[in-house]
Specification:
Two copies of one chain form a homodimer.
Chain A: H1 2-6, H2 8-14, E1 25-29, E2 32-33, H3 40-55, E3 63-66, H4 68-76, H5 83-100, E4 113-118, E5 129-133, H6 137-147, H7 150-168, H8 173-187, H9 197-215, H10 223-237, H11 241-249, E6 259-264, E7 275-280, E8 292-297, H12 301-306, E9 312-313, H13 317-320, H14 322-339, E10 343-350, E11 353-361, H15 366-378, H16 384-390, H17 393-400, E12 403-404, E13 412-415, E14 417-420, E15 423-429, H18 432-440, E16 445-449, H19 457-462, E17 465-468, H20 476-484, E18 487-490, E19 495-498, E20 503-506, E21 509-512, E22 516-520, E23 525-528, E24 533-534, H21 541-555, E25 561-565, H22 569-577, E26 583-586, H23 595-606, H24 610-634, E27 639-643, H25 657-667, H26 671-681, H27 693-698, H28 700-719, E28 725-730, H29 736-756, E29 765-769, H30 772-776, H31 778-782, E30 787-790, H32 792-800, H33 811-816, H34 833-847, E31 852-855, H35 863-871, E32 876-879, H36 884-902
Chain lengths: 903, 903
Amino acid sequence: MTTTRNRGPKSNRKRAPGGRKNRTIWHFGPGHADGETSMKDLLGGKGANLAEMCRIGLPVPGGFTIATSVCSRFAKSGHALPADVVADVRKAIRRLEKETGKGFGDPKRPLLVSVRSGAALSMPGMMDTVLNLGLNDDAMEGLAAQTGNRRFALDARRRFIQMFANVVEGLDLSRFERVLEQAQENAGVETDSELDAAALEDVVARYLKLFKRLAGRPFPDDPEEQLLRSICAVFGSWQGARAVEYRRIHKIEGLLGTAVNVQTMVFGNLGPTSGTGVCFTRDPSTGENVFYGEYLMNAQGEDVVAGIRTPQDLAGLVEVQPKAYRQLERVRRLLEKHYRDMQDIEFTIEDGTLYILQTRTGKRTARSAVRTAVEMAKQRLITRDEAVARVQPEDLDRLLHPQFDPQAERNVIARGLPASPGAVCGQVVFTADEAKVKAASGDPVILVRNETSPEDVGGMHAAEGILTATGGMTSHAAVVARGMGKCCVAGAGEVRIDESDGFFRVGDTVVWKDDVISLDGTSGEVMVGSVTTMPADPGPEFATLLSWADTACRKGGRGLRVRANADAPSDAATARAFGAVGIGLCRTEHMFFGEKRIIAMREMILADTLGARRKALRKLLPFQRRDFAGILKAMDGLPVTIRLLDPPLHEFLPHEEDGIAAVADALDVDEQEIRERSRRLEEMNPMLGHRGCRLGITYPEIYEMQVRAIYEAAAQNKKKGLRPRPEVMIPLVGSVKEYTLLRDRLKRVARDVLKKKEVTLPVIFGTMIEIPRAALRAAEIGAEAEFFSFGTNDLTQLTFGYSRDDVGSFLPGYVEQKVLDADPFATLDQSGVGELVQMAAERGRSARPKLKVGICGEHGGDPASIGFCHEVGLDYVSCSPFRVPIARLAAAHAVLGSVERDV
Amino acid sequence: MTTTRNRGPKSNRKRAPGGRKNRTIWHFGPGHADGETSMKDLLGGKGANLAEMCRIGLPVPGGFTIATSVCSRFAKSGHALPADVVADVRKAIRRLEKETGKGFGDPKRPLLVSVRSGAALSMPGMMDTVLNLGLNDDAMEGLAAQTGNRRFALDARRRFIQMFANVVEGLDLSRFERVLEQAQENAGVETDSELDAAALEDVVARYLKLFKRLAGRPFPDDPEEQLLRSICAVFGSWQGARAVEYRRIHKIEGLLGTAVNVQTMVFGNLGPTSGTGVCFTRDPSTGENVFYGEYLMNAQGEDVVAGIRTPQDLAGLVEVQPKAYRQLERVRRLLEKHYRDMQDIEFTIEDGTLYILQTRTGKRTARSAVRTAVEMAKQRLITRDEAVARVQPEDLDRLLHPQFDPQAERNVIARGLPASPGAVCGQVVFTADEAKVKAASGDPVILVRNETSPEDVGGMHAAEGILTATGGMTSHAAVVARGMGKCCVAGAGEVRIDESDGFFRVGDTVVWKDDVISLDGTSGEVMVGSVTTMPADPGPEFATLLSWADTACRKGGRGLRVRANADAPSDAATARAFGAVGIGLCRTEHMFFGEKRIIAMREMILADTLGARRKALRKLLPFQRRDFAGILKAMDGLPVTIRLLDPPLHEFLPHEEDGIAAVADALDVDEQEIRERSRRLEEMNPMLGHRGCRLGITYPEIYEMQVRAIYEAAAQNKKKGLRPRPEVMIPLVGSVKEYTLLRDRLKRVARDVLKKKEVTLPVIFGTMIEIPRAALRAAEIGAEAEFFSFGTNDLTQLTFGYSRDDVGSFLPGYVEQKVLDADPFATLDQSGVGELVQMAAERGRSARPKLKVGICGEHGGDPASIGFCHEVGLDYVSCSPFRVPIARLAAAHAVLGSVERDV
């Protein structure tokens, strides 16, 4: 034995245990196995797993695996089992009888087995499972005696005959079912579970007759014959049309064939010392490190599922079956140590003996996933990197927003896009003003609109949630709601709003103003009435996991940083609390919608002369300065990228009569004149219109005011001893001259302010890359700009030629018909838009190697897209504050994934 | 001499004539010269040209050039003329005196010269010209005697003093002008030409005094001193601040310096045997091969220009000065043979002797350019390729459309974009219906609208011309008008239309319905009243030139073919007559605007069910089939690329009340219902909305009807013995699956039709490349499509993110501020959009080497863009019928240009 030990355990494992490379039969049983987990090619996936479970000491019901190599021999010998294999199978059965103390066809302790197929890859189309094989008349009597339940034994025999007839012999299942239905009719009952033993006795007799008629030969009574024919059926199914077709479609080649697994059946209903149960090594709901599960004594697995009897809490088992329970406790430790993850276990106790039927990685809630991962790492079961990799970024979303109680009843009337997560209830209102008034009086409200515009932002803030009838995942409502961390269901196309009469309709359902509805921002469901919610509670392990994620991210040398998109001090503070290391996109348009601001803004837009525009801009300056000072303070010491005004001016104009009257009044002109000027500003395709830097070039005074406000705010903060780090971003650049023209003019303004205030600050300017042409000309632009920020929303719109406001009419159909793999506004289109992103990053850096490159579109918060951002070497992603944790985790995954690939 | 001859004339010319490489003085005179045209480096451009004119035997007034090499010697010797140069100049003057029989300061036959600078490159900032040098008191008396005009001689002396003072001495010109003004005041006259001899005598005296006061020394009386100081001034100006700055900006390096040209003055006003004139070797207006020009006897060049005396037709000169005339005839032949192009000649006859003062390539009309080029090629003066290269493609545009009489008065009230050429007058109407009614009664009308839509196409057809207040060079109005060859002025922003009250206003000018206005589609001018027009007449040489262009184009091996964009049989016929070799883009949307069609179309769009849509489509099928049959017939034997329906459906919906009523009636539903359904189809950004293949995928029945119509039409034509060659183009593809999904479905429809009709025809499908993503994914798409057609209008919109309907608000400012070099909708943006075009062509061909690739955007008719299309290896361009000749010529230029570059 010394020699073997010197070779080390690893080389020992590689050697086929048992020595014979071309052996056909591989035994396994409680605590021993010939094979092991790495031998999938020879034993199939199922066989290898069974062997592994045995090898680590689990009490698995014994059995054997017939190797995949036999499958090809079977095919070559004209679909006949070679004589040596038959002999080996017989020997294996004898051994199994000896080990279990049971006998094939034994009327006292009958050996019953299951027969299952199992190739190296899971593969539909092959013969599946025969249970209770061996259950001939004698064995049936034995089972009846053991269980003290003749009806159960008869039912098991009936099921075995039917399964064998259908699965092994390929007889028509419906013919057998008709016999059963006839029996039910005769007995005057509705279900087969109501048939008594006598009736089942009759069914068994009829089944045997029917089998003989259909198969042309009697049902085999000899368990060995049953077994050999089942084995042949499994091997034969490997060459069946469905299995061959499946392998063709999935391009599966080079497999030897399927293996066959023969395993002893065990029963939890053999009396009061038998039982069955399901358990988890930790609480799958909370992640708490407790043994969690349920059991039923003298019962089968189906009984637990059927819900006729109420299962007991696992803790009770220690009283009833202390030995089995202690054994189970050992199994729990063994499993976590071996599989290094929380396991979901099925077990049966047969006459006081514990058997583990199955173990697999346990499904768990997001909360549990985080806690399990963190605690396992603290127990040193896994590394911290593994803990980080174990939690899916998207799962975090649910932890940060309230959810509906999964048990609560939902009266769903419509479905929209799950635009921003959360679970909210409130009274329906149809305008932003109503929302503000009602919310101020303390009533939770839900703002329902066809679509929202910047005018509605105040009302959105006041509302609990937002429901829109049109618009997609990046519509105004969706983007703003995500930014606020507010629940939103967007583009619920069936919702028809009649604002003037104060109701909306979905089909025949009418919902009036002030009626209560509920929105599920994770599923997109709209419900009437209120639904019980559960508060958000990410748990204390959440922060630990994210700090590990950040550490993992840094390891890659150039891991992505995560910034946030925020345009209010409160949002900036939230983002910072969630771990954002700066603001990647501070939009400035919403800042103009306050009560006094909007009037001044409209004055500016509708002014006829430069002088009048300047006058209005002077009114706006103090507001802007205050906004910027607040945001810079909330993100003090971290970079804040401020985008100059982007939307077309007409978005700020009033559409309602009193808005028009107010502006007419403020500007002291005729209302008709205001309408006329508004009309002239209208555009056919505002998305492609007079916006972004195009406005900046036509009306330089607007950007000048903004830059003045930014640097006055920064100077003010610096004088207070803070460390403001503003960066100015010029939007919608498509040509380098747009950028240089504005940059030159605006840097002058910034430096003038700093000089006047006697403050020193670096003046950093960069641009959005959101126009395809900017990506193409990125070398030129990169030579001039200090940073690039990909506006992938607009870049996606332009690269595809899709308007995100209008895609609702065809994009869902596109995804359904697989024209597109995914909504490109939700997940970055790597092969199209992605090529432009990569090209622009490369070309930009070719001109300026230290160019800082980030992404601030909605994709910045999408885990799949974040992986891509890492691959193409971006410096940071920026996303809504509430998605910052998700992005941090996704960034870590990207680094861990690429490190893994690099190895 | 035999030896010299054996060396051949060419090697002889290369040798510096005169032998001495570093000689300073290079003489020239009637019929002889030391230098020649290739010696620009040494003699400057002007000196080399003067030498060349002399060498080919032209009677050029004699003189000499001081070589550029002297310039650097001048600088090195501290801005002094080296002694040997002074001596050489003196010798040269002696020789000139001998040759001319005149003398410096000679009171009988004074020798007067001009002194001019002249470097190898023309260069502002250097000293320009001194005339009449040598005109001291004595010489003045001589000139007075010769001309018999003392006043003239005094005036010439006054001018010489003033010029010398300013140009050579750098004295303040205004001081001299004040003297002249004083003299005018004293004499009580308004202009200096009214001053009599006595007054001028006084002015000369005052000038000499002023000169002395300002310069600190008397005016030099010695002609040699005048000359030497002038020469120094020329050389000195080479190092002047302005000249140095100019060379710096234009990166001009490596030049030796400037040369100085000294040339005898000749006078056409020495008496009845003297005269002056201007002539062209051919008629610059018609191109006719006749000697064309004007002269005046006993006059100076200024007299011809001033228009005080009426010049005589050149033909009359044969009577007055037969010898000079015959000599001039010889000069004409000599010049065309030598310069191989039509020349514009200035001549003077001094006392019976002809002098040629200048010859240059003559400016000509488009008509003349074509005729001259063709006839010169036929005379073998130039090759056919040269003839093709001589005519600018854009010039042809003027030949194909009527133009306003350049003499006619124009009352311009507004300016728009020159969207489609032509010159038209007509009565103002504001709706398409009015246009049709009025035009039907025989009145020419001009349709004035804010913008046009497909609904207006009938009215546009009926109108003489179209004026729009908004929209750019590729707006609907512009594109459709160019397609029809109809005059259009687009985007005349000052025009404010009040349709309901029936007038439009430009500033204070009001133009009522039925008032007559005129449009100039070449300049973009809008005029009130009618302006005399001249009909279009390209002349018989036009077709010859274009056939040579086609031949030149074929020589390159892979020259561009020219197809047309046409969607009506009549347009197709026009295009074919203009030489189109197929249709590159047959739009199908205008076909749905006929009276009965539009109702059926609207029925289809507003139908609620597939069945109802199919019913409406069945009504449309016969119309489509008839359209396609007609177009295929007009282009029989040539490929016709038909684009399936492209615009969003709402473009077809009625906006006016009676339109809505008609649809409601046809569909038998409520008008309110129609309004509601229309509203639902509205889009925020229709350009990026539910259109093109996106419609095809959502409503496959529409494209199925179109494809059925195409192949039924083709089958019908084929059965009549014709050779229809339809190609089906799927628009707006951005992802290969869009294409394959539709192609598979529609090819099936096409093959079904052909099988049913028992006709064999190839079924060819391809796609537009107009979405940036399609260009990026062109390898995938090229593997599936049989042709690509670049829709560069949409590709430009998306690559820049510009809406062509809205760019009016900023694009003109962009071009003005040089943010962009040109309107990218007029001239293809080679560095941005062009990269995508090139990338797509390359990637597409990498997947399918025989992929046919063309361009069908508006750029297909723009010469600069056509050059690019050739460079990137496209197979064809497609443009409006009326631009086909321009494109053919531009395609030939591209080939000739690249062949030249390849050599």
